[in-house]
Amino acid sequence: MKKLLTKLYILAFMALVVYFGVIIWNLTFAHIIHEYHERHAANMEHSEESLVQKEKVAKSFEQVILNSETRTKQYLGYRVLEQQYIEGHFHHIGFDVGPDRHSYCSSCHGDMPHDSVTKDLRAFLNMHAFFIGCQTCHSRPEGEMATGVYKWYARETGEIIPSPVNDAPPGTYKAKIIPFVMEKGSIVRIDSQAKRDFVEQYRLNEKELTEGQKSKSKNIIHNIVSKKPVICEECHSKEKPLLPLADLGYSERRVDSITSTEVVGMIKNYTKFYMPKMLNPGVSHPVDPAVDPVEPVLPGQLTPSVPEVESLPPAVGTEG
Amino acid sequence: MLSNFLRGPHWSFRALLVAFCLMPGWVLAADMGNCLLCHKYPGLSRIDEGGNMKLMFVNEDIFNTSVHSKVKCEGCHADITKIPHEPAKPVDCLAVCHIIEPTSEQKFSHKSVKTFMDESVHSKVDKEGNLKKFNEDMPTCKDCHDNPLFRPLAFVKKVRPGIADDAMGRCRVCHEKEDFIFRFYNHITTRLHKSRSPLNVAQACGKCHDDKELVKRHGLTVMAGSSYQETFHGKAANLLDEAIPDCLDCHVVKGKSVHQMYGNDDPRSSTHPDNRGAICNSIDCHPGASVQFANYQVHPMFDMDKSPVVYWFTTFFYVLTGGTLLPLMFILFFDLLRRLFPNASFTRRR
């Protein structure tokens, strides 16, 4: 035993020596080699002409995506403000929500999946996607499947957690709402481990799959997606909102706010101006405000008499 | 009386008006239009046609500690006149906003910055008013500035930075409005020292001045940001020293705006060969320093062509350090290997 421990001790020491060796190499000779290669490359690449012309080089995946997310630290003296750097963004972010590592939808569609719907609506949908799981709006469990149960899951771990709402600033929760369905007599979350495993296997084997196999896989993955996603008014309504807001931990004040005339009124205005497809599925041209005038709302005047909107047949573009 | 006011048509609008009137001052300040109804959500975002992330979130708490905290949303986003609104146009920082400048009692604007910038080395146009080559590289407001945040100092007890409660207490003797006291204290104490830490200033300048392609396009001789980091000043800045000189301390004439920065060959520039002596030997830095002192290589680069002395000196120390420590690591490694396998041998035993 003592011999084994000694051997392990020596092995650990050796690893430490290698580690220090790499550090010393990087701090010394690696610099010289790097500078030599850079100088050599610069001499090869840049003729006098190239210096006066702005080069248009196709950017690599690494440049555009992997290296695109940088962070900044602002030293204010009394605090350090660290945040993601977004080029051209003037206002400060101030905190990180963190990626959704659990959603199998996000693994393909990303954290900001709504980019092909109406231009003026996509930011709103992405805003909701920050704290509402995709399946909450894009699937409609019906019949025996429907339970009306919704819970919060942690974005980082995927675990079901108590409501994070409490007094947290709206939308800053590190959690999302997910529906539960009835399966084989028990209530289970809709994003079951089996579904997650299936998507993971699909992504691992995607390159080797034939076109037919890909289509079949996608059909299976998306078979819970409803053709008619949940629309704004189904939650932002005093009358039986789809989500059990109180059960999800929203205080009475917040429920009032979410279902207030202020919010609902604005949605109606948005519906009239910017979501004509919702009113007329299949009609590609927006409703002409001149023909169908709706009073725009001035800032600070968000609850004027909004004309009643007829019953809304839902149909916004579907995405995972 | 209030209940009568709230009755009748448009009662909800009246209720909203009353609610606004009852709000604390700083809440009233910026969000009169209730823009935060939507913009308080951090997920309000999209990817634009160019593949860039657009984030429309405004962190209210941080905004209220910024120099613009008193400016209403529509003061900058002037094109937004109704809710719901169309995609907002880029903000014109030179627009006249709704704040009254107290000394002139005129509406406030940043227009003078443009006058300074047009004459500076960062101008898009040359002296004749023609567009410079690669003028698109020249910085616009947001290339250097995000929303500037207050950096208040505590003078009464210098135990920690930030607001001194004692000082605020003195303000309250005469002044009543809490938001005025908060903002005034922050404004004054922020302006009494650097509005950004030297490290943040170097990073802001480095966004362009460390861009290899940009540096080459404009015929600049050094990577100013990274070479600053190699100096004693840069090292101290990295350790968050606030008293250490940053880019602006040397490149802006004392008493002038940072926007009045000129090229090294411009006689108005602080870094013009005739003026350099005055940079280092100011009473705050190195009093009595000679002109030669100020003409040392301020932006050393590990580059054989541009800084041969620095290059060979640094190389010598790299070789000395690496040449000493790496063999030591080799010896240690093989010594440990022998201890691990005390009887191992390459030669066959007889």
Overall geometry of chain A comes to extended
Relative helix content of chain A: 25-40%
Helices and strands of chain B, in order, run as HHHHEEHHEEHHHHHHHHHHHH
Structural class of chain B: mainly alpha
Helical content band of chain B:
40-55%
Beta strands of chain B, count: 4
Question: How does this structure look, described?
Answer:
The complex is a heterodimer of chains A (320) and B (350). Chain A is of the alpha+beta class and 320 residues long. Chain A has 13 helices and six strands. The model of chain A is unreliable at 274-320 (pLDDT under 50). Chain B is mostly helical and 350 residues long. Chain B has a domain at 1-92. Helices cover 43% and strands 3% of the residues of chain B. In chain B, strands 1-2 form a two-stranded antiparallel ribbon. Chain B has a two-stranded antiparallel sheet with strand order 3-4. The termini of chain B are far apart. The interface between A and B is large, with 80 and 91 residues.
Summary tags:
heterodimer; A: about 325 residues; alpha+beta; four-stranded antiparallel beta sheet; two-stranded antiparallel sheet; 13 helices; extended; disordered C terminus; B: about 350 residues; mainly alpha; two-stranded antiparallel ribbon; 18 helices; 4 strands
In short, what is this structure?
The complex is a heterodimer of chains A (320) and B (350). Chain A has 13 helices and six strands. Chain A has helices spanning 2-27, 29-45, 48-51, 61-66, 106-109, 122-129, 134-138, 193-205, 211-221, 232-235, 252-258, 261-274, 276-279, and strands spanning 70-75, 80-85, 146-154, 160-161, 175-183, 186-189.
